[in-house]
């Protein structure tokens, strides 16, 4: 009787609320399972080392899905926003982690990384979002490469006289003897005190899900999806296209910047070459494989494709071959019309087994 009531109440809940609850539950159950494995000593070091990167890529995939899946625009510069957040947040952390309380400095680093990425998202979005399709993809790809190249060429230091910057080499900054090099060109930032943990990563994933899912289900989210479905119709009924495209683009950039901080504080060295166009393509693969506009699919795809190379390390000679074959197979299964129809049938069967109003009435009478 109690089971009947629980299922009937669950069935009456709003579909959007159920989707959110399931997504949150997936993350929390995975977190508890990992903590249980770690507590019992059954968690391999190779897997534990991937926990923070998994959280990072989940954030990246969900945030990019907001632009690619819900807005319907192809962006290939997501790694550029990630690098901006990573370097700005890490610089703040390096300068303040010893003088400020660590939790305060860490929160401030995440906020600074997100804000810097958001500002550049706004600056880039003004001209870029007037483009569509392939042109938008090409410009965002160029943006990511420009950011990587500029950061590779920067030498930044600090001494008693303040900050010094050069585009030539570290010696050209002319610092005092007490000076410290913060960014050493292509070598990047070294000697970073690690601060990222799996718990922090899960908290950031939950924050990302909260922001994206609530935005998608809001009035602004419906406007964003209407632009994706039919731009001309949306514009004809008075929806400000540029405003909502900018909203999605900036939100995605802010979350990518915070993901960059999470990623960078997991290592002692931060280099710009990590954030090249291959990273943007990888995140796009997560989104496409998980299903554009499917947040749960992005979570699962990012997790599986981050762990898979490590699981295949035992077959090192054929690791990338097996990885590529599995990726193609998963893509075919995910996009196959027969697979889509099969998933629809399964979902309908599950839905039909949930007690409806008739069963609920019978249960009460019984």
Textual characterization of the structure:
- With 366 residues, this protein is mainly α.
- It has a single domain, classed as Orthogonal Bundle (ABC transporter involved in vitamin B12 uptake, BtuC), CATH 1.10.3470.
- It is 72% helix and 4% strand.
- The protein is built from 16 helices and 3 strands.
- A 3-stranded antiparallel sheet has the order 2-1-3.
- β1 (155-159) and β2 form a beta hairpin.
- α2 (15-39) runs antiparallel to α8 (198-216).
- The chain is globular.
- It starts with a helix and ends with a helix.
- The model is unreliable at 356-366 (pLDDT under 50).
Protein topology:
Layout: H1 2-12, H2 15-39, H3 45-48, H4 51-71, H5 78-96, H6 102-128, H7 133-153, E1 155-159, E2 162-166, E3 180-184, H8 198-216, H9 219-229, H10 231-236, H11 241-264, H12 277-290, H13 295-311, H14 319-335, H15 337-353, H16 357-365
Antiparallel strand pairs: 1-2, 1-3
Fraction of residues in H or I helices: over 70%
Number of domains: 1
In percent, how much strand structure appears in the residues? under 5%
Question: Total strand count, please?
Answer: 3
Major beta-sheet overview: 3 strands, antiparallel
SS-based class: mainly alpha
In round numbers, the mean pLDDT is: 83
Order of helices and strands: HHHHHHHEEEHHHHHHHHH
Number of alpha- plus pi-helical segments? 16
